[in-house]
């Protein structure tokens, strides 16, 4: 297979699981109720259920339905990339870095038929300053099933102003009126 193009720089260090990171087995709540990847407020969203692993890693399942088609009876590739983006971005819960995707490289290795349950994994590979390098993959129908899709990504840590200054005012104001639209875990608030 061809090597990934998101190379980890020499000054990167191993990621550290934050001491107050959610415990292994914890099901991460949606970070934003209207998120396409994990929000219950999106009728056609992916509704991913993401579970914390033992290290800097996560697992999730995603059921591919007729709503997710590209070719007849097959999942749309961009949508599979979205599923990986979501499980990779949620790694920030473990390192306590609120990040946005800067680069997402995806390899589509096998077609994913409607009706498939995709078993997704992600792990933080390295941190260099504000940059978090991560990788993940999706297996067909079983945690050890054939790899259908895999990705490597670079996330960049941002402050709250990234969201408040760039997001549309209507949605930002809605959070002000109803803070439960975004997640609070323990003593921290997850940026949308
Ligand atoms: C508290 C924890 C909560 C966690 C839970 C949250 C759950 C969320 C789940 C959501 C899941 C879904 C998530 C989503 O879908 S997030 C939505 C999709 N992503 C975006 O909208 C991001 C749009 N981009 C930007 O806003 C800016 O470009 C960012 C913020 C990324 C960087 O602009 P900024 O001005 O701030 O910084 P910089 O430009 O100095 O760059 C900084 C460094 O990064 C390097 N670089 C940048 N881009 C690239 C690139 N493409 N390839 C390689 N390298 C790149 C760059 O060279 C530099 O390196 P160095 O010179 O320092 O060495």
TrEMBL record:
Main location per the UniProt record: membrane
Recorded family membership: Belongs to the THEM4/THEM5 thioesterase family.
Compartments reported by the entry: Cell projection, Ruffle membrane; Cytoplasm; Membrane
Membrane topology according to the record: Peripheral membrane protein
Gene3D superfamilies: Hotdog Thioesterase
EC number: 3.1.2.2
CDD domains (alphabetical): PaaI_thioesterase (cd03443)
Catalytic reactions of this protein: (5Z,8Z,11Z,14Z)-eicosatetraenoyl-CoA + H2O = (5Z,8Z,11Z,14Z)-eicosatetraenoate + CoA + H(+); tetradecanoyl-CoA + H2O = tetradecanoate + CoA + H(+); decanoyl-CoA + H2O = decanoate + CoA + H(+); (9Z)-octadecenoyl-CoA + H2O = (9Z)-octadecenoate + CoA + H(+)
Keywords: Apoptosis, Cell membrane, Cell projection, Cytoplasm, Fatty acid metabolism, Hydrolase, Lipid metabolism, Membrane, Transit peptide
PANTHER family in the cross-refs: ACYL-COENZYME A THIOESTERASE THEM4 (PTHR12418)
Protein name according to UniProt: Acyl-coenzyme A thioesterase THEM4
BP term (GO), one: fatty acid metabolic process
Example of a GO MF term: hydrolase activity
Major enzyme class: hydrolase
Domain Thioesterase: start-end pairs: 73-133
Pfam families referenced in this protein's UniProt entry, alphabetically: 4HBT
SUPFAM superfamilies per the UniProt record, alphabetical: Thioesterase/thiol ester dehydrase-isomerase
One GO cellular component, as annotated: cytoplasm
